Each structure stands twice: as structure tokens, then as C-alpha cells.
Amino acid sequence: MKKFEEKTYETETIYKGKIVQLDIDSVTLPDGNTSKRELIRHPGAVAVIAITEEGKLVCVEQYRKPMEKSIIEIPAGKLEPGEEPKTCALRELEEETGYTSDDLEFITSFYTSPGFADEIVHLYFTDQIKPMEEQPDGDEDEFVEQIELTVEEAEALEKEERIHDAKTAYAILYMKLRNAR
Amino acid sequence: MKKFEEKTYETETIYKGKIVQLDIDSVTLPDGNTSKRELIRHPGAVAVIAITEEGKLVCVEQYRKPMEKSIIEIPAGKLEPGEEPKTCALRELEEETGYTSDDLEFITSFYTSPGFADEIVHLYFTDQIKPMEEQPDGDEDEFVEQIELTVEEAEALEKEERIHDAKTAYAILYMKLRNAR
Predict the structure, then answer these.
(1) Contact at 8 Å (CB) between B82 and B60?
(2) Alpha-carbon distance B17 to B66, whole Å?
(3) Distance from A13 to chain B by nearest Cα, in Å?
(4) N or C: which end of chain A has fewer CB within 10 A?
(5) Does residue B114 lie within any of the structural domains?
(6) Do residues A59 and A98 both lie within one domain?
(7) Same structural domain for residues B95 and B169?
(8) What's the Cα-to-Cα distance from A70 to each of A89, A108, B6, B44, B77, rounded to whole Å?
(9) Is B150 part of a structural domain of the chain?
(10) Which of A15, A62, A117 has its CB closest to that of B14?
(11) Domain limits at A126?
(12) Domain total for chain A?
């Protein structure tokens, strides 16, 4: 769907980094006027809603520099170039939590900030996880701590803003809905 | 919580735009090594889950430049400097849909991309809406079309990726959970 399309007549790349690229597109609006759009280019990401045998949500706590605080999130990570989302989801689950799974089910995908960024999150679900025999290495500049939460614990942490991101808020509703069935 | 804190020893501002600012922070990691963090600064946003008397979700379709497609989302918008989130939520609901409400309830807030951006979305709910007598003006470079969806219609559109963003995916689960009660 291209309703209200904004046609680009010029792109200026301001910055190309390790994670994001910043472009400024000059566009023609549907009414013929022009405007500028600030666009963050991102390789995309995956996240996993993993539920233990006891019905707990597997999470990791990590420091998030943009907010200068550590928050508790479901396992997630960036896609490597050419990587299949499902392969990436399994890799991130293993690296961040030490669990593995033969049964990752795709739920949905969503853009996180459609107004200014093209970051997409591919979301997977599993309630079939087992501890790995040997814990794989994660990224060398990533420090995470694992934590497993009942839905009540997760909701309490969300009220305290220690769970404070979109994909984990989504995961909590997903769990509640699953428990309600 | 500052677990695994990354201390900044230098900040370089690469770009300051209308919507985003890009900073590169040089940081000291918990193990004493150093790294760089690419950080998108954003003023924050609001979104509204508004339900009509018939139980439909009020949405708007608009072109989203980062993905080069138009998607259907719940009403949302950026905070103006100093603006209260609730005031902003009511303003965006009125501007984008022509509905108003005396009864906006705060649900939760979440960061959209905690790995690289500080954009936060403050989310409100209302099932008490009424059409405004006079439609207010929206942003001059914003073109939106209103659409009202049953939860089944919304889910079908999500499968087709015409609903394709985090806050609207959250809104669909929120509606389903509310209907399940």
C-alpha cells in the first residue's frame, strides 16, 4: 500500500555506524509540497517469548545506555547480515539465557518506531526449552543476567518501570492471554 | 537500577534534527574495557487505544517513510516540548480522528528500541469517545485517513502486514484480553 506516498527526490546520508545509519530524505508530499524526513536505518532484530515448564517468562536484565538504566527484557538481538530471523532468534535465546529449543514458533513482526526508523522485530514463541549442556559465548561487550518471572511478577516489574520496553510489554499481554484460555 | 552501568567519558553529537538527535557516547564497560554507543535521542510520544461504542478500535492509515509503505496504526504522536503526555494523547486523538474523550486512562509506557533509542511511548485507553463538533487541524505535513476495526479485522490486517507496528500489535492483544474477560 502506497497511499499518501511521499516521493524521495534526494537522500543525504549523515552517518553510517555499527548499528544505525541516519539518512535525511527530501520528499514530495501528496499535496505537492516538500518536506524532509529523518530516517534511522537499522538491520532489524528478533525477540523470543520463552516459557519454562513452570510457566515462567525467561528474561534478561541488561544496561540500556539510551535510558541510562538497566531493564528486564525478553531475550532479543540484532540480525547479522543475511541471517534468517528464526536462526537469529535461536542464537540469541542460547547466548543470552543458556536455553535452547527445537520448537520456535513465529508469532508476528512489528516496526518499533515507524515514524522515524525502519527497525523491525520478528517475534517468536516457545514453551519447549531445555538448558544447553555448554553455555555459548555472547557478544563481548554485552553484560546480561538471566531472570525467570511469573506473569504476576512481570506485571509488578512493569509497574515499577523495571520492565519498560515494547516487546516485553507485548510478551506480558501474550502470556496473560495464553493463561486466560 | 544501574546494574552493569556503562559510564560515558565522551559524547559526540553527530546530528540535531527536527525529530531525532544522534549522539555517539564513548563508554567504559563493567569489565573496564571501552566501547561506543550510537544513541538516538527522541522527545517521546503518546498513543491511544480508543474503542467505539460498537467495540471497534479507532485507527489511522498513514504513509511511513522509513518503510516506504502506508500502515494502519492507533492514533499517536510526538510530545511537544513541556507537554504533558495525557494532554498530548487527547490532542493527537482529536487531530487524527475527530473524536474526543473526557476519560483517557493511562495504561503503561514503554521504550520502543531500548538498544539504541530513548523514544518512550505513553499509552492511554478510552472506551468513552464522542465525535467533535468541529474537526481540528492536524500537522500540515501529515496525511492520515481514519478507519475503525473489529478485533478480527485488526488481526487479519496484522497478518497481511498492513498493521505492522509495536504499539498497534500491543493494542490488538489489549483488546483481545479485554474481550476475553
Answers:
(1) no
(2) 16
(3) 11
(4) C
(5) no
(6) yes
(7) yes
(8) 22, 26, 10, 19, 26
(9) yes
(10) A15
(11) 44-109+120-178
(12) 2
Amino acid at A161: E
Nearest to B53 by CA among B94, B101, B89, B107: B101
User: Cell numbers of B30, please?
Assistant: 563493567
Q: What is the DSSP string of B46-114?
A: EEEEEB-TTSPEEEEEEEEGGGTEEEEE-SEEEPPTT--HHHHHHHHHHHHHSEE-S--EEEEEEES-T
Chain A residue at shortest CA distance from B180:
A180
ipTM of the complex: 0.96
CB pairs under 8 A between A and B: 219
Same domain, A70 and A87: yes
**In this structure, is residue A84 part of a structural domain?**
yes
Q: Do the Cβ atoms of A22 and B15 come within 8 Å?
A: yes
**pLDDT tens sequence for chain B (181 residues):** 788 999 999 999 999 999 999 999 999 999 999 999 999 999 999 999 999 999 999 999 999 999 999 999 999 999 999 999 999 999 999 999 999 999 999 999 999 999 999 999 999 999 999 999 887 777 777 788 999 999 999 999 999 999 999 999 999 999 999 998 7
For residues A35 and B141, is the Cβ–Cβ distance under 8 A? yes
Same domain, A18 and A65: no
Cβ–Cβ of B116/A73 closer than 8 Å?
no
Decide if A114 is inside a domain: no
- What number of other Cβ atoms are within 10 A of residue A126's Cβ? 20
Return the bridge partners of A24, or none: A12, A38
Q: Are B51 and B175 in contact (CB under 8 A)?
A: yes
Q: Which three cell numbers stand for residue A94?
A: 542460547
The string of pLDDT tens digits covering residues A96-142 is 999 999 999 999 999 999 999 999 999 999 999 999 988 777 777 77
Sheet holding A57-64, edge to edge: A69-73, A57-64, A144-149
A140 shares a domain with A100: yes
Instruction: Report pLDDT for B58.
Output: 98
